[in-house]
Amino acid sequence: MGKTIALVGALDTKGPDFHFVKSEIEKRGHKTLLIDVGVIAEPTIRPDIPSQAVAKASGIRLEELQEKEDRGFAIEIMSRGIVGIIMDLHQRGKIDGILSMGGSAGTAIGTAAMRVLPLGFPKVMVSTLASGDTKPFVGTSDVVMCPSVVDVA
User: Fold this and answer.
1) pLDDT of the chain along its 153 residues, tens only?
2) Nearest to residue 35, comparing CAs of 93, 96, 81?
């Protein structure tokens, strides 16, 4: 039986990229759980867990976050929310791995979720920041950082 891979990303700006990855994973007999952490616009691909749920997991409505128009605050809130969601999914045995793709914001949010997972749990971050200092994103965890060579889009 296939594994379930959590795909975490901003589906408003990276929807086609996540659609491609989702399709490739599913072609290989695995399931995906698509989680949207985008706050700019509507997702371009339908998520299994919408960004409204991620924001709510941090105790704030997505609309409030959008009205504030503060990128740093949005990253903080969505990071906090995705950590709670991923921890819950892992504890309930609903995911077998996690993959995220993004630029600076997507990397901060995706790796926040990855760092709370135990050593040995598969975690892959495709990032425009992977060729630089990855310590702020990886810390002491076993997150695998893959450079995207160019912007993920």
Assistant:
1) 789 999 999 999 999 999 999 999 999 999 999 999 999 999 999 999 999 999 999 999 999 999 999 999 999 999 999 999 999 999 999 999 999 999 889 999 999 999 999 999 999 999 987 777 777 777 778 888 888 876 655
2) 81
User: Do 52 and 29 form a contact (C-beta atoms < 8 A)?
Assistant: no
Task: Collapse the DSSP code of 68 into the 3-class scheme (helix H, G, I; strand E, B; otherwise coil) and give the result.
Answer: helix
Domains and CATH numbers, the chain: 4-147 (3.40.50.12020)
Determine whether 59 is exposed, middle or buried from the number of CB atoms within 10 Å of its CB (0-12, 13-18, 19+): exposed
Q: And the tokens for 60? A: 């704030």
Bridge partner list, 4: 31
Q: At 102, list the tokens.
A: 């993004």
Question: What's the pTM?
Answer: 0.92
